[in-house]
Every structure is written in C-alpha cells, then in structure tokens.
Amino acid sequence: MRGPILGEFMGTLMLILLGGGVNAAVLLKRSKAEASGWIVITAGWAFAVLCGIFTANLFGSPDAHLNPAITLAMAVKTGLYNNLLPFSIAQILGGLAGGTLVWLFYLPHWPVTNDPDAKLAVFSTGPAIRMPLANLFCEILATFVLVIVVGGMTSKLVLTQGAAAGLTPLLIGCLIWGIGLSLGATTGYAINPARDLGPRLAHAILPIAGKGPSDWSYAWIPVIGPLIGGAAAGLVLRLLNA
Predict the structure, then answer these.
(1) pLDDT in tens, 167-199
(2) What is each CA distance from 144 to 88, 168, 181, 206, 238, in whole angstroms?
(3) Widest CA span of the chain, in angstroms?
C-alpha cells in the first residue's frame, strides 16, 4: 500500500483539503469562521503543509515534495529527473482530489454564497492587482525563497548532523506561514503548481452551485512562476553543493 507516488498523492490531497478548507471557512457565507481574515488563512495553510508532509511520509514518500516546483528544484540540484513526471502527476491529482473533498465538506455553503469570485478563491489563487508580469515575478521570487530556505533547513552545510527527528516539517510549516504573511498578499502565494492547478480543475469540473468561470487566462502564472523559481533555486543549491 505504501510508496512514493501514493505518498505524494495523499500528502497533496491533505494539503489541499486543509488549505482549501481554511479558504472556504473564511470566504463562504454562514461559516463560523466567515471573514476571519488573512492571518487565519496563512496560519491554516502553514498547518496544512505540516500535515501534508507527515501524511506523505506515512503513505511512503520520505521526501514529501507535495509540489512540482520542489520536485523540479531537487531534480536540478541532483541532476536526477526520474521522479519529476510521476511525482508531478500524483501531486496534481492529489490537488484535484483535495479540492473535491473541500467542495463536499462545505456543500451547504455554496448555494448561500453569492459571490462567484469568493467560490473560485476557495480553490485557486488570483492577483490582488492583475499585472501579469508583476504577478509572475511575485510567484517566481516567493518560490525561490521557499526552495532556498527549505534547502537551508535540510542541508548539512547548516545542520551538520541534520534536524531533530520530526522537526523539519514544523520548520517548513513556519516558513510557509512567513511567506504567506510577507510575500503572499499580491498573488495569494501559490508557490506550487499542484496547489493551484489541481483545485482549479476541481472548480472547473464540479457542479458547484453558482460558480463562475475558473479564470484560465491567469492560471498559467501560478504554474510557470513556481517552476521558474524552483528551477533557479535548485541551480543555486547545486552550485552551493547544499
């Protein structure tokens, strides 16, 4: 039952269930957490990443990338690309499954929420100000920060004997919280193609009451931006021999 591909699928599913779940809690009408704000959203996503990593480990993925940009970064760093396609597919499908579970969990709240943009924002990211090149830069830089700092957290150049068992996922969760607070307010900090594309596919496919379009004209930015940022950071880690 266990294996790296299943681990990536289940870990990403958990990531999106809890991350999309906090979006839904804040954005959908008549939720007990309605309008509780950005701090709740960023904290929820930090804990979602923490839980996603442990879930991926449980189901057989010790690396727990949960993110094609991370997988690409590690491929660039090591020169080994054999996991890039299977992991990325598993991660995107996990995002699709997680988005579907969010829809089911909040089923009574979709009909009473009139704003179709709020419904889309449960599933996918979008810009505060739509300027494609600026939005792309934000996703590139935020993902570069993600990969570089994760690289530092897991590098023997920094922690010569490695982190204490179980500590690294907590540190990464804190990093996600920090990125969300500092760099997330412009684009919603996808920093992960699977986090955006998988749930956006769910939004497009599912019979969500009163939904609008899935904004495919923007959807390339949270895919391409993180991949560029991840690849650039992976190259830096390779040059550092981190």
Answers:
(1) 999 999 999 999 999 999 999 999 999 999 999
(2) 18, 18, 16, 33, 14
(3) 54
